[in-house]
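Notebook entry, structure prediction.
Reason for the run: the old model in the group folder had no record of what sequence produced it. Starting over properly, with the input documented here first.
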Amino acid sequence: MASRVIVPERQRDGVFAGKLKPKAAEGNNRRAALVDIGNLDTKRVGGDAGKQQQVTRPATRRFGAVLLANAQANAEKKNKKPVVVIADKTVVLKTKVSNPVAKKAVVKPKQEPVIGAGAEEAKKEKPNTQKSSRKKKVQTMTSVLSARSKVACGLSDNIVDIDAGDIDNQLAAVEYVEDLYNFYILAESSSQIPDYMDSQNQINAKMRMILVDWLIQVHNKFELAPETLYLTIYIVDRYLSTNVTQRRELQLLGISSMLIASKYEEIWAPEVKDFVCISDKTYTREHILGMEKSILAKLGWTLTVPTPYVFLVRFVKAAMADKEMENMAFFLAELGLMQYAVVMFRPSMLAASAVYAARCTLNKTPPWDKTLEIHTGYTGSQLIDCAKLLVSFHAGVADDKLRVVFNKYSSPKRSAVALLAPAKSLLAS
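New structure, fully documented this time:
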């Protein structure tokens, strides 16, 4: 029987299989304490593990920049050599910089003058960078035809171009203003209000005057635009011409009409609760909104109509009016809004008659000229009847109980035109 070979056991990590490695002497197994492991270069001094000596500074970015600056300064000092200059027995030390850097002179090429015909060609080839800031007026077909008709009638010398100063004003729409007002003239015939007072059973002209006087007061209280007032009166008259209204609903009609006009014209329109408050809570929110729906249904939602204000702005401009004359024209026009007798006149005729009466009141000569005749479309003789009516309202407004318009235009803010005497030339005739 063969005998097995005995292999000695392997040593694993100082431990024999089945036996522990004998311990070494305690004196030989002592380990030194850990030293500083920071970013400083240190070394032991005298073999003592507890003491350290700093040899170098940590190489930070700031320290590296300082070293670089010092190195550059030392290099510059080496390149400079002192030079001794004797002047009046005085020794002066100057530093001489070696290898000076010479500046290169920049020589601009000279432009050769162009002589003869070449100069004119060069000027022609040079583009003109200066553009005229004045905007050219665009000639429309309507303006061309109007100018030709004026020349044919021999009126070109007496007519003033009232839009010449607004060529650069884009909001004035000079290119389209003539076409716009030609359209307004055609549109006002379809929006003309008929005589409706005979069809009303409980409302008369005096009640309408009281309502308009109160609406002008509310308009001033809310500080609304002039367009809103004229559109409000139009809506009231338009509704009364199509629907029989009871007396107790007349003020409600005025409130709802101003609410609609404010929504159409104003940027910040008054709210329904404001009209409830201004009516002393006579009507509720439901009453006002219900009347609003009824008005819009009767009018067919047609609110874009030429009111007297649209024509007044244009005709006052054609009259070359100052502030006093402008206030006088608007004063007479608002007096006309209160009177039912003026409803039958076209908005353009009411506006032209207000300008005519204002010129007569302020003694402007002539009271009507060719420029006004062309832009309004009316002659002076066509405006006499309506102008006399407006002047008669002016003569009696001071003694009337309804004085809202009179007080409005008696303030210095509006040139106190209501305090002026009415036109005697129109009252006497």
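Summary: The mean pLDDT is 78.
The old model has been moved to the deprecated folder.
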